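FORM 12-B: Structure-to-Sequence Request
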């Protein structure tokens, strides 16, 4: 909760710009939890410092921009970026190989689930750019869809619990589990839709 307190104090003083800038930094894999940052943005909104709709939009854009920067860095500098001292701590050679294999197996769906993997998120987006196995348009689309799920959940959690931090602390863990369940449901629906359309197309042939 200490990180949350510091973020709330900082955001209360500098508002939207502070939230937006911090979320971009989160995208670089720095040790500032994105989920906690979003919750803090929701808290200052619940306390009356900012507007909920604007905070949602600012948070959403900050998340997408931070993720996109990682992808573009990988796309431009390719694998040589892994030699950078800072980047090498985020994406080790072993992690790079693992993520590359997952892309080969799962493709765009691995990008979608990346938003819900705090420890691997930045590395996945960077590797997506390095390997160029997905175009930027597809990367942005999958990240956009995933962010539509995660960002509102975390911001609204902070908004609702702005005056009850014990409740927030209790629900943060549940929120992470709930998001994973929601992602699983979305993936199942997506698979059903995919195979249903595939079956229809076969019948037309």
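FORM 12-B RESPONSE
SEQUENCE OUT:
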């Amino acid at each position: 909760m200490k990180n949350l307190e510091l973020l709330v104090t900082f955001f209360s003083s500098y508002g939207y710009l502070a939230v937006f800038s911090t979320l971009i930094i989160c995208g670089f894999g720095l040790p500032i939890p994105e989920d906690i940052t979003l919750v803090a943005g929701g808290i200052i909104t619940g306390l009356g410092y900012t507007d909920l709709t604007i905070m949602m939009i600012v948070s959403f854009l900050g998340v997408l921009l931070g993720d996109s920067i990682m992808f573009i860095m990988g796309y431009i500098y390719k694998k040589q970026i892994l030699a950078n001292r800072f980047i090498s701590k985020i994406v080790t050679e072993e992690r790079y190989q693992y993520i590359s294999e997952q892309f080969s197996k799962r493709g765009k769906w691995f990008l979608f689930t990346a938003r819900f993997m705090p420890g691997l998120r930045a590395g996945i987006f960077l590797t997506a750019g390095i390997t160029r196995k997905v175009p930027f348009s597809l990367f942005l689309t999958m990240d956009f869809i995933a962010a539509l799920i995660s960002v509102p959940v975390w911001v609204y959690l902070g908004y609702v619990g702005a005056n009850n931090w014990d409740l927030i602390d209790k629900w943060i863990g549940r929120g992470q589990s709930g998001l994973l369940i929601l992602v699983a449901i979305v993936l199942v629906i997506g698979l059903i839709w995919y195979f249903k359309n595939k079956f229809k197309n076969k019948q037309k042939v």
